[in-house]
């Protein structure tokens, strides 16, 4: 699916969120990535095969530094 010179990660890859966005709809809270993944602003994802990835924002305590 990806036609970029440096191929984007596939939808099955661990780094799938690094794929280039081909459609941005921030007013609706989602972006379509070139690998077919729908990425939502809450960090949830809908993969091309229909699999749902729950939001995975870091917890506030994980962002605290020592």
Quick take:
It holds the Pfam family DUF5999. The protein is mostly beta strands.
Describe the structure.
- Strand 3 and strand 4 (45-46) form a beta hairpin.
- The protein has no helices and 5 strands.
- It has 66 residues and is mainly beta.
- The protein has a domain at 21-63.
- The chain has a 5-stranded antiparallel beta sheet with strand order 1-2-3-4-5, with no helix packed on it.
List the helices and strands and how they pair.
Elements lengths: L20 E5 L4 E4 L4 E3 L4 E2 L5 E2 L13
Antiparallel strand pairs: 1-2, 2-3, 3-4, 4-5
InterPro entries: DUF5999 (IPR046041)
Structural class: mainly beta
User: Which stretches are poorly predicted, pLDDT < 50 over at least 5 residues?
Assistant: none
Strand order of the largest sheet: 1-2-3-4-5
User: How large is the count of helical segments?
Assistant: 0
Largest sheet: 5 strands, antiparallel
Roughly how many Å apart are the termini? 43 Å
> Helix coverage percent of residues?
under 10%
CA-based shape: globular
Q: What is the average of the pLDDT values?
A: 89
Compute the CA-based radius of gyration: 13 Å
Tell me the number of strands.
5
Sequence of secondary-structure elements: EEEEE
Summary keywords:
single chain; five-stranded antiparallel sheet; 5 strands; globular
């Amino acid at each position: 699916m990806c036609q970029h010179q440096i191929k984007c990660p596939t939808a099955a890859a661990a780094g799938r969120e690094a794929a280039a966005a081909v459609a941005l709809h921030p007013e609706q809270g989602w972006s379509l990535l070139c690998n077919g993944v729908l990425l939502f602003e809450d960090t949830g994802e809908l993969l091309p095969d229909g699999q749902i990835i729950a939001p995975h924002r870091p917890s506030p305590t994980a962002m605290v530094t020592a």
